[in-house]
Design goal:
Structural class: mainly alpha
Low-confidence stretches: none
Strand order of the largest sheet: 1-2
Mean pLDDT: 88
Shape: globular
Largest sheet: 2 strands, antiparallel
Radius of gyration: 23 Å
Order of helices and strands: HHHHHHHEEHHHH
Oligomer: single chain
Length: 333
């Protein structure tokens, strides 16, 4: 004889599963929302007031780097790249956004350790930045022994210690040198990052490219032979990954560029380069526009269907061209 309660039991189990799935869907959607932009000068002023310091040269850039790094850990859902439990383990847009942001954090931290905080190549590196920079370069996917978050918190603590020393008149061994050559060195790194992203985004539709690896130097050589033409195409499953990595990278750069404008203002004004800096920011801000489609579309170049990667590539390439122009201005006397 059949149990009359059996349909009710299965119906209840199905209802519970449906509620759990709906909860995970809503939570995943919320955790996938990118953080809002912030005012770099306001963040620096608030941090200075809380520590009873003055905003000195370099304070805004360092405070912005700190805030971006803290955002990686404190945004809704926290840091997701190393999560192994649902729903975050099923998400890939936000982890790629985090990686793009993290790359810019690493690059600026390295530039500050190696160039911006040192008066010359023979000077001693800053002790706190020597701790922060390698900590930020810890494996971004480690979830235990040690967890990525703990390493990044150590980096944030060391960076905060540098910031406190920077604003303390009695700590003259903490410096931030806002010089044109230091800015050029960092922009050279930014230029390569943006150039790589633009190429990867453009490859969403597949391209046959002329091999220019040895162009411009008749005596140049390379380790292994390569064909004259290269077929380059981003795998279909990685198209949205590259898109959100570029979006995260641009989000971080927007704030770093605005902070650099504050701390390197005299250098930029002397070179008549403030407009160039603002043009970079303008192009990068366009990458943060809302994506109205439910997924990243990948239509061919002039098809009826949009190609979000090509649109993103156009903004990234324009920003990269503006970075090159700015570096050229800074090199002029």
């Amino acid at each position: 004889m059949e149990d009359p309660t059996e349909p009710g039991i299965w119906g209840g189990i199905g209802g519970v599963i449906a509620v759990v799935l709906l909860f995970f869907f809503g939570l995943g959607w919320y955790w996938n929302l990118t953080p809002d932009a912030f005012d770099v000068s306001e963040v620096a002023q608030q941090r200075a007031e809380s520590s009873q310091h003055q905003v000195v040269v370099g304070y805004t850039t360092t405070a912005s780097l700190l805030h971006v790094a803290e955002t990686l850990l404190e945004k809704p859902g926290g840091y997701l790249s190393n999560d192994v439990m649902p729903p975050s383990v099923l998400l890939d847009d936000m982890p790629n956004w985090e990686f793009g942001t993290l790359v810019q954090v690493r690059d600026l931290a390295r530039a500050m350790r190696n160039e911006i905080s040192r008066s010359q190549s023979q000077s001693v590196e800053d002790s706190d930045l020597a701790i922060a920079e390698p900590k930020f370069n810890f494996d971004n996917g480690s979830w235990m022994f040690p967890a990525t978050e703990s390493e990044y918190r150590d980096a944030i603590a060391a960076l905060a210690a540098y910031l406190d020393r920077l604003a303390d008149p009695s700590q003259q061994n903490a410096q931030f040198y806002a010089r044109a050559d230091n800015l050029r060195d960092w922009l050279a790194i930014v230029e390569k990052r943006l150039g790589s992203l633009a190429q990867r985004l453009s490859a969403s539709v597949g391209q046959v490219r002329i091999n220019t690896d040895l162009a411009g130097d008749a005596g140049a050589q390379q380790a292994t032979a390569a064909p004259d033409q290269l077929r380059v195409k981003t795998p279909w499953l990685e198209i949205d990954d590259v898109f959100y990595e570029a979006r995260g990278s641009a989000w971080a750069l927007i704030h770093f560029m605005k902070a650099i404008e504050v701390d390197f203002r005299q250098v930029l004004e002397k070179k008549n380069a403030l407009v160039s800096m603002r043009q970079i920011v303008r192009e990068l801000e366009a990458t943060q526009d809302t994506v109205w489609a439910p997924m990243i579309l990948n239509g061919s170049g002039f098809s009826l269907v949009a190609n979000h990667s090509l649109v993103m590539a156009s903004y990234i390439a324009a920003a990269n061209a503006a970075v090159i122009d700015l570096r050229n201005l800074l090199e002029q006397g």
